Amino acid sequence: MRFTETEIDGVWLIEPNVFSDSRGYFMESFKQDDFEKHIGEVNFIQDNESKSSYGVLRGLHYQKGEWSQAKLVRVIKGEVLDVAVDLRQSSPTFGKHVVMLLSEDNKRQLYIPRGFAHGFLVLSDEAIFTYKVDNKYNPEAETSLAYNDPALNIHWPVAESSLVLSEKDSLAPLLKDAYLFK
Question: What digits encode the pLDDT tens for the residues 103-148?
């Protein structure tokens, strides 16, 4: 696997070695010792998966305080635009974001540490998105950040009229009103 830290400290692009032949392919999608060698110790406790259709924008989600979660995300079917926003007030990249194209073809993964809001936009007809987390889900700690906050200046490559959002995501607060990490 190739580990490349992005322009935001703590966010890593992970590209697996893929071995292809006439039968298909083989790859290691996660290897604890390689992960810890490059990124550090993380204890993933749960795997999650979602299926979405074109134009679905899930996010920007995160959990507050002690319930914050680190994530290792990837796409096993389709293509998404994946976004992580730094909500760590003490970070020199506070309010900045990383954008990565993740797909079944490129097999890239993105590691997002605690202290970030995360979301993705489905660019293919359908996408199956999977991710590991290092902390339990607590519905009382769940919150989100407005995907279209002008202060974030995230370019979503689907017309606003074609986006499919949950009610919660359409009502999410702006960065200036959001819960932030120290």
Answer: 999 999 999 999 999 999 999 999 999 999 999 999 999 999 999 9
Contact in structure between 70 and 110 (CB atoms under 8 Å): no
Kindly calculate the radius of gyration of the chain based on its CA atoms and give it in whole angstroms: 16
CB 70 within 8 A of CB 12: no
What's the DSSP call for residue 173?
P
Q: What does the pLDDT look like over 21-75, one tens digit per residue?
A: 999 999 999 999 999 999 999 999 999 999 999 999 999 999 999 999 999 999 9
Catalytic residue among 62, 111, 131, 147: 131
Tell me whether residue 62 is one of the annotated catalytic residues: no
Structure tokens at 33: 């010792």
From 61, 62, 97, 147, active-site residue: 61
Beta strands in 6-139 (DSSP E): 12-15, 18-21, 24-27, 46-53, 57-63, 71-77, 79-86, 97-103, 109-112, 116-122, 126-133
How far apart are the C-alpha atoms of 144 and 85, rounded to whole Å? 11
Distance between CA atoms of residues 53 and 94, nearest Å: 31
- DSSP code string of 69-82: --EEEEEEESEEEE
Amino acid in the structure at residue 83: V
Domains along the chain with CATH numbers: 44-177 (2.60.120.10)
